[in-house]
Design a protein that fits this description.
Layout: E1 2-7, H1 18-26, E2 29-34, H2 49-60, E3 67-72, H3 74-85, E4 90-96, H4 106-121, H5 129-139, H6 142-146, H7 149-161, E5 174-179, H8 187-196, E6 200-205, H9 212-215, H10 217-226
Helix pairs in contact: 1-10, 2-3, 4-5, 4-7
């Protein structure tokens, strides 16, 4: 049975993953869902992308031989960073609507400013829910709104790390999925990643947004099962 280690995105619940995991198992794939610190497992510290890479290495070091990594959204960001630092441990990479492309367009730059403001003055804004909610709405990030202060700073650290991410240096075979209607990580990011990663295949999922593994699980799983991972 093939085995995949899965890094979920910015979520505090794995409930939506269950149907996808069941389909993978039915396709002869053993899927090991990892609990990401600060999200589905406890972590009271502010982390950087290096901290997540080191955390993941401790897990993968226990595996026999190379592994296949699947990362969704922020989980994809972690997976790409890990693969760049430890390519000898990864046989294949599967990315679903992956974060990691650095944007400096005005709306994205404004979002980073808002994140930085909220991270810096979060405690002072504690009693001003109206102002905080206005900033969250302006940023368009409910994930950020639900995060505690340490995870707010962690998210900012991860977003800023994209500036130095060398996606073009990924050398392992990579299967990229992207929801055509994704408004969080746009399809243009998927095309860019595909063009930068030489040994990659891009599968665009029609009528899907940021999480095609939830809305179109059969299509995603069939592609994974039929691929050479």
């Amino acid at each position: 049975m093939k085995k995949i280690l899965i890094l979920h995105g910015w979520t505090y619940s794995l409930e939506k993953w269950q149907a996808f995991l069941k389909l993978l198992k039915g396709g002869g794939i053993e899927a090991n869902m990892l609990n990401v610190p600060g999200l589905t497992s406890k972590n009271d510290e502010v982390w950087s992308i290096e901290d997540y890479v080191n955390w993941l290495k401790k897990i993968i070091d226990k595996e026999k031989g190379k592994v296949t990594l699947l990362g969704h959204s922020n989980g994809g960001r972690i997976a790409v960073n890990f693969t760049l630092k430890h390519p000898e441990k990864i046989s294949n990479l599967i990315l679903i609507d992956c974060a990691g492309v650095y944007h400096n367009e005005l709306p994205i730059a404004l979002k980073r400013v808002i994140f930085k403001t909220l991270a810096k003055f979060g405690k002072k804004l504690k009693n001003s829910s109206l102002l905080k909610n206005a900033l969250y709405k302006l940023a368009g990030e409910n994930d950020y709104k639900d995060a505690n202060l340490n995870m707010k700073q962690t998210m900012l650290n991860l977003i800023n790390s994209d500036k130095s991410l060398k996606i073009e240096n990924v050398r392992v075979p990579t299967l990229i999925f992207w929801g055509k209607e994704d408004k969080i990580t746009p399809l243009s990011d998927g095309h860019l990643m595909h063009s930068l990663i030489k040994n990659s295949k891009l599968k665009i999922i029609e009528n899907a947004r940021h999480s095609p593994q939830f809305t179109n699980p059969e299509e995603v799983v069939n592609e994974i099962v039929s691929s050479d991972i």
